[in-house]
Write a structure and sequence with these properties.
Blueprint (H helix, E strand, L loop, with lengths): L2 E14 L2 E16 L2 E16 L2 E6 L28 H10 L15 H11 L16 E2 L2 E2 L1 H4 L1 H10 L6 E4 L10 E5 L8 E8 L5 E5 L4 E5 L13 E7 L3
Helix pairs in contact: 1-2
Protein name: Amidase domain-containing protein
Pfam family, one: Amidase_6
InterPro entries: Amidase_6 (IPR024301)
């Protein structure tokens, strides 16, 4: 870690009696070095600042999957006819870079937006949707409605494990096997329930993935998320190469 630059942006100010509450986003730019190779990692964290009795307290706002995600549904286990699609990885990565710290008005924004964001990136890369209007079937977004697999981290992970048509992925064993445009799924507690998804947008000098994500918006973040408050030693990852079966 060579240099850190931070900038805060207040988006809400609340007064209660003599107390003031500010909600702001802290945008960090972190210059990383690996040998002779440099890259810029960016992260955005939501904070609340409270002033009470002459004291100022800054606190990171914790966002959990349960705040905005719909109820999980069992995905259908039927085997569909296998089809192939052409995946434009460059277009998926370009979309991920364009919208990593903003929100496309063509889609609904979720408080927990990680899977919705990854789904949009994959769609921009040409991944075909199917299953509408059944929310527990396929992977799709249509007219302000969506499948559970489109927006719920756990459902998306299990959809990728079994999909035989539309969007498909091949599970691989190591992050080094991934390329830009591929996906990583995270079970932070190691309890079998997946909480987060990211899209690979680049590789570092050692061939390890750098990822973009929403919720706590991040750009070119190291794939393992060991710097996350949600990380635990029991974390479980799933690695998917998109467009392959």
């Amino acid at each position: 870690m060579v240099r850190i630059k931070g900038e805060g942006k207040v988006y809400q100010k609340l007064r209660t009696n003599d107390d003031l509450n500010y909600r702001y986003l802290l945008h960090l730019e972190i210059l990383m070095r690996q040998g002779k190779h440099f890259y810029m990692e960016e992260q955005v964290f939501p904070f609340v600042c409270k002033t009470k009795e002459g004291k100022t307290i800054h606190r990171l706002v914790e966002i959990t999957t349960d705040q905005a995600a719909p109820q999980l549904a069992l995905l259908e286990s039927e085997v569909a006819e296998e089809t192939r699609f052409s995946y434009d990885r460059m277009s998926a990565v370009q979309y991920a870079e364009n919208w990593w710290n903003s929100y496309n008005p063509a889609y609904r924004k979720f408080d927990v937006d990680c899977t919705n964001y990854v789904s949009q990136c994959l769609k921009a890369g040409g991944a075909p949707m199917w299953g509408a209007p059944n929310r527990s079937k396929g992977w799709w977004y249509q007219g302000g409605s969506w499948s559970f697999s489109w927006a719920v981290a756990h459902s998306f992970r299990w959809y990728l494990s079994g999909a035989k048509q539309g969007l498909k992925g091949l599970e691989v064993h190591t992050p080094q096997e991934l390329a830009p445009g591929d996906v990583i799924c995270y079970d932070f507690e190691g309890d079998g329930r997946f909480n987060h998804n990211t899209i690979v947008v680049a590789k570092d000098s050692e061939g390890m993935p750098l990822v973009n994500a929403h919720t706590n918006n991040s750009r070119h973040r190291y794939w393992s998320y060991e710097d996350s408050a949600a990380w635990t030693p029991e974390i479980n990852y799933k690695f998917f190469r998109i467009g392959e079966t």
